[in-house]
């Protein structure tokens, strides 16, 4: 069974620090990887997509992909209280499978 | 440039009634996905549709649930004879191509009394 695993958290990070969110997946055939942010009571919002090994940076966000280790991560630099949310990792094999999400709490 | 639209945003039904949820994808998107999310739970895939075709319904309960995406008009997720366990948030997402990024609508919160 194809799985996407995330630590449920909560992960507490001081304001201004780097938040590191991790995700592992089971299917080596996975080609596309996504990070979504979901505020409580709201819908998921796409924040990053990554398709090849290495790092991809977009503003304060960096996605890192290591296909050999079947590992994808999201770094958030200069964390802000507005970053407090649940972060969903999603992996596409023949359909997109979502992890259950990591709750991130930025401490003011 | 309108995003994915869903209506109604909130729907209350009594046990045994039918619930009909609508989703209009983003302009130019022909791939639609439905997900269900229970409180404090992850997103659970239900069904993937293209215009007039069901591509993957492996996440749909075998009974009472059906989905369609007609040539004209929105995609519809229909739940017949609702039970309390159907209470959840139902999200629709659309994509311009099958394996690419998905963009979510605001969701429909279904409450079954």
Strands, helices and their partners?
The complex is a heterodimer of chains A (108) and B (113).
Chain A: E1 4-5, E2 11-14, E3 19-25, E4 32-38, E5 45-50, E6 54-58, E7 61-66, E8 71-76, E9 85-92, E10 96-98, E11 102-107
Parallel strand pairs in A: 2-11
Antiparallel strand pairs in A: 1-3, 3-8, 4-5, 4-9, 6-7, 7-8, 9-10, 9-11
Chain B: E1 5-7, E2 10-13, E3 19-24, E4 31-37, E5 43-50, E6 53-56, E7 65-68, E8 75-79, E9 88-95, E10 103-104, E11 108-112
Parallel strand pairs in B: 2-11
Antiparallel strand pairs in B: 1-3, 3-8, 4-5, 4-9, 5-6, 7-8, 9-10, 9-11
Index terms:
heterodimer, A: 108 residues, mainly beta, six-stranded mixed β-sheet, five-stranded antiparallel β-sheet, 11 strands, 0% helix, 56% strand, globular, B: 113 residues, seven-stranded mixed β-sheet, four-stranded antiparallel β-sheet, 50% strand
Describe this structure in words.
The complex is a heterodimer of chains A (108) and B (113). By secondary structure, chain A is mainly β. Chain A has strands spanning 4-5, 11-14, 19-25, 32-38, 45-50, 54-58, 61-66, 71-76, 85-92, 96-98, 102-107. In chain A, the strands form two sheets. In chain A, strands 2, 4, 5, 9, 10 and 11 form a six-stranded mixed β-sheet that branches. In chain A, strands 1-3-8-7-6 form a five-stranded antiparallel β-sheet, with no helix packed on it. The mean pLDDT of chain A is 94. In chain B, strands 2, 4, 5, 6, 9, 10 and 11 form a seven-stranded mixed β-sheet that branches. The model of chain B has no long low-confidence stretch (mean pLDDT 94). Chain B is 0% helix and 50% strand. Chain A binds chain B through residues 31-32, 34, 36, 42-46, 49, 88, 90, 92, 94-101, and chain B through 33, 35, 41-43, 45, 48, 56, 91, 99-107.
């Amino acid at each position: 069974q194809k799985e996407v695993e995330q630590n449920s958290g909560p992960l507490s990070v001081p304001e201004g620090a780097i938040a590191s969110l991790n995700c592992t997946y089971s299917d080596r055939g996975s080609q596309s990887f996504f990070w979504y942010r979901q505020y409580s009571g709201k819908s998921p919002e796409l924040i990053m997509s990554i398709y090849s090994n290495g790092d991809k940076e977009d503003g304060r966000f960096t996605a890192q992909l290591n296909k050999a280790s079947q590992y994808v991560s999201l770094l958030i630099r200069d964390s802000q209280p507005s970053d407090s949310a649940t972060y969903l990792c999603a992996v596409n094999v023949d359909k997109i499978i979502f992890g259950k999400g990591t709750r991130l709490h930025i401490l003011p | 440039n309108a995003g994915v639209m869903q209506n109604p945003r909130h729907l209350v039904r009594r046990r045994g009634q039918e619930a009909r949820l609508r989703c209009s994808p983003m302009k130019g998107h022909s791939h639609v996905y439905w997900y269900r999310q229970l409180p404090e739970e992850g997103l659970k895939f239900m069904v993937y549709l293209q215009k007039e075709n069901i591509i993957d319904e492996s996440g749909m309960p075998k009974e009472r649930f059906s989905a369609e995406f007609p040539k004209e008009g929105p995609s519809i997720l229909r739940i017949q004879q609702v039970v309390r366990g159907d209470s959840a948030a139902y999200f629709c997402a659309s994509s311009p191509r099958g394996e690419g990024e998905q963009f979510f609508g605001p969701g429909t919160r279904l409450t079954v009394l």
